[in-house]
Predict the structure.
Amino acid sequence: MKNTTTQALIQELKRTAIAQEVPLWKRVAEDLEKPSRQRRSVNIFKIDANADDGDILIVPGKVLGEGDLTKKVTVAAFSFSSQAAEKIGKNGKVMTITELIKSNPKASKVRILG
């Protein structure tokens, strides 16, 4: 059983996917519908290895704090460890998925990482 916050986010992602005709939001919603133990976990070092300066990344799971971030990126995720949020915040920007939907409904230049 998923909590109501997660369910609301999934519904918002699906509505936005249809309204904006952006399949990326539907894909993120499908990932969040999986059981929490099957959701993606991404460490900082993976973000650093797969991103360029200015990238906007979305992680439909949890971002963990292992590694160092040397690039200025925006990362939106379902959740962040406190260490990961602190490390990303030094060079880049930390957002919730809901904030990313509101600021970039067309998902332009957004990539899924995981």
Q: What stands out?
A: The mean pLDDT is 94.
